[in-house]
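We modelled the chain as a single entity of 322 amino acids. Its sequence is:
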Amino acid sequence: MKAWQYSEFGDPEVIHLVDVARPEPAEDRVLLKIEATGLNPYDWHLYRGDPYLARMASPLKKSGPLVPGTDVAGVVEALGPGVTSLQVGDRVWGEINFGGMGEYATPLARHLTRLPESVSSVAAAATAMGALTAWDALKLAPTVEGASVLVTSASGGVGHLAAQIARIMGAQRVVGVASSRHSDWIDSLSLDRVIDYTETSLGDAGETFDIVVDTHATTPLREISRIMKPHGTYAVVGAPERGFLGPITPIYSRKFRSLFVPYSIEVVQASSSTANLDTIAGWLADGRLVPRVEKVYALAEGRDALEALEAGHVGGKVVVAP
């Protein structure tokens, strides 16, 4: 089978498309035929070893070459010993940490859950991590129902899903921050307002919010304070910084300053849950949640997909489909 692998940290050039033996599922694992893999910044952080501190926890040196790709959808082709939750032939999806950018993978069965027939593999693979992260961010607020919500980078992989999930959870007003270059599709999110950050700073937005989901953490906190309601919730998802500590410094420096502001500053600790994936699958099936896929790449174009993701400004998600 073919798979993209890397055996050292670095830019996308360290990843190579190779022929390897099809794996056999060990205990508690399944053989999954990959139909689609959604890519996330998480993936390039792993192969770059960025932040540098994260290299100490990487399995790269212990387990040998790794295959990137954590968000997958596909079909179970074989069961390893001890697997009872799934059956051969099941269409499934989930987060598997590594292994998605190949024709087959052997993830732990507990990381997968069944996918409704009406939901495409591409849509599912484009949704998993982003939707789970967005939902975790919104759940940090005391309530979303009836709230006013602002989502930064509303055209991004997490942001465009967060805007939709806020509406599903009953938000009364949802505002997104995005540039005009995504105006051709951002209207599909049914936002109450779009703030073009190239023209208007957040501090000059002219309204305040109960919840701010910040997926980029580049706006100065003094501007964030001008748009927060007292006792509101500011949920920080990520930041673009690289280096030894990467996004840890800007994110947790904001958390520290929660001692000095009248609203709550929360750091999102995204978690994977098949129960939550089942709920999200229901939203996909009934059309309330619709991931935006900018492009589907063939497996042979996997490096191109990663380079596009790293370059930034992807509208929604990119997906690799063998």
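As a brief sanity check on the tokenised model: The CA atoms of residues 137 and 268 lie 6 Å apart. The chain has a mean pLDDT of 91.
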